[in-house]
């Protein structure tokens, strides 16, 4: 069992409240997943690339990190530290070099992109949200996950969301049964995963399809054919937000839409405090059907 | 009419109050406010009582209901009216997975759509869905009636025993051993009664009846190799 929440704003006036609304939704889903929690938030675009990194010893690892990276890349680097995570902002064309530098220093890269920041840790959702200050974050859309691990260890890297390409992320409720075979298939194409986790394979599959030219909708459609097992997936891209459930659809899902937002949750409880929810269109997404919204 | 507000009253206290009132057989009418998708609302009611839930509920609302009437003005989560014995459960919105599962009696009246596995293993309950139902509905259904004014999803009535399935719209596919059957006058009569009880705006003649071909009832020695 896991909990998923997602919020995609259609209008700009709710943007400053995105983190606040997502945090409440995430905490409501604590009893579906108390092991770990994570959130991907698509905030204001930086002038450049944002790389989110994690360290178990942030005081040591983040001290002087921006200056060191700046020296290595010979460019300006900005850094914002939030607990065990740091978001580094740098020019887009320096991505490959920067990632190699950060990984060589033993830092875990959570994700990168022009808009997306990912924060995830082991612990109760309320504690995870508080240590990163998610409530204060604004943005256009975001996805959160509360984890009750079944397929792999309870670690920071095993928490969701998983990001396998710039500004793309995936959260998952369920378990994939052909993830090892798919991991090998992807590796043959040069797409490598970092963990033993099944969801990361799902994320890598979607990213590789998009890299090959598929739209978000087509990539999600592909999961129905190529991935086996139970899944309710919610995925984020720079401009979009998508949902797909496997054909058996035993993992719960409910959606709500108003003029202001589209919301996703594992259970209706997560919607109870959303503005205008009483008048919202609330429905259960159909099995084997792809839904996505793009701005 | 007593009002229980879930913003001020714990779920256990709400259910204990309702269960005690049901046992007292005073025919009381309760209103529950701010259910906020809570799980296991108004469960185990064992007596004549009327409960109106103003809003949407989570998992297992009105489970094991007996004699009571539970009316949800919003939508219901998975497992609404599971194992109902008698009484009536009315959902104004949609119902999620396995609505009315294993129900022995009473009427489950869903005004919106029901999703997958509606009426799975039903054992005598009557279910009327004014909208559509999802896949694998009435799987291994043993007794009772499932009436659908809209369409049915894949594998309707798979491995069905003796429940009657009435569908007005399309059926995406029939499950193993489920077949369309002749609508005889006694079926029209049953259907008329159910539509009337559920306040459904439809004529019995518009429906098709589906039931068990009864081919799975007995072990077939010719198929021994298949096992």
TrEMBL record, chain A:
Question: Ranges for the Glutamine amidotransferase type-2 domain?
Answer: 2-295
Transferase in keyword set: yes
Q: Does the keyword Transcription apply?
A: no
Q: Which GO terms describe its molecular function?
A: transferase activity
Which keywords annotate this record? Answer: Glutamine amidotransferase, Transferase
CDD domains per the record?
GlxB
Please identify the protein, giving its name as recorded: N-methylglutamate synthase subunit A
Report the source organism.
Alloyangia pacifica
Q: What is the lineage of its organism?
A: Bacteria, Pseudomonadati, Pseudomonadota, Alphaproteobacteria, Rhodobacterales
From TrEMBL, chain B:
What GO molecular function terms would the record report? Answer: oxidoreductase activity
Which InterPro entries does this one have?
Glu_synth_asu_C_sf, Glu_synth_lsu_3
PANTHER family, sorted: TUNGSTEN FORMYLMETHANOFURAN DEHYDROGENASE, SUBUNIT C (FWDC), TUNGSTEN-CONTAINING FORMYLMETHANOFURAN DEHYDROGENASE 2 SUBUNIT C
Name the chain's protein: N-methylglutamate synthase subunit B
